[in-house]
Amino acid sequence: MVVQKKTWTICFLFKVFFHFFIKLVLGGISQSNHHLLILDGHGSHVLEAIKHASQFGLDMFILLTHTSHALQPLDVNYFKPFKFAFRKKKDNNMVRNNHLELDKVTLASWVDKTHNQSLSKQNILSGFKVTWV
């Protein structure tokens, strides 16, 4: 788990994720076993990473910026309710605990509970209905 103060990905975190992803992919990534990683158009997905990816046999497809409402059904009907529920837990905790910092175990527990509340068959299917996918 990696935590930062900003809520969006920064270049350093993307590089950490990128190397973790390469190690994680089942069957391995290689020049003879290519994989595709689809990313949004966030600035942290720098050209350097794209060049580096091709050396590992990882092809990267970058979506146009400001298109998640049309191309990413999980952004619409999973991540939105997830973020809303998670922020509610965080805000309630800050009020109750006088703005004390969270430990990773508590944070992971919140993510698990919020994920389970937000991820439903209905949310996923409606996400595909309201986007162009």
Reconstruct the topology from this structure.
Elements: H1 11-24, E1 35-39, H2 47-56, E2 58-62, H3 68-71, H4 73-96, H5 104-118, H6 121-130
Parallel strand pairs: 1-2
Helix pairs in contact: 4-5, 4-6
Question: Which descriptor suits the 3D outline?
Answer: globular
Q: Please work out how many helical segments DSSP would assign.
A: 6
Task: Report the structural category.
Answer: mainly alpha
What is the alpha-carbon Rg in Å?
17 Å
Distance between the termini: 31 Å
Contiguous uncertain segments of 5+ residues: none
Major beta sheet, strand line-up: 1-2
Number of domains: 2
| Main sheet properties | 2 strands, parallel
Number of strands: 2
Q: What is the helical fraction, as a range of percent?
A: 55-70%
Tell me the fraction of residues in β-strands, as a range.
5-15%
Order of helices and strands: HEHEHHHH
Query: How confident overall, as mean pLDDT?
Result: 77
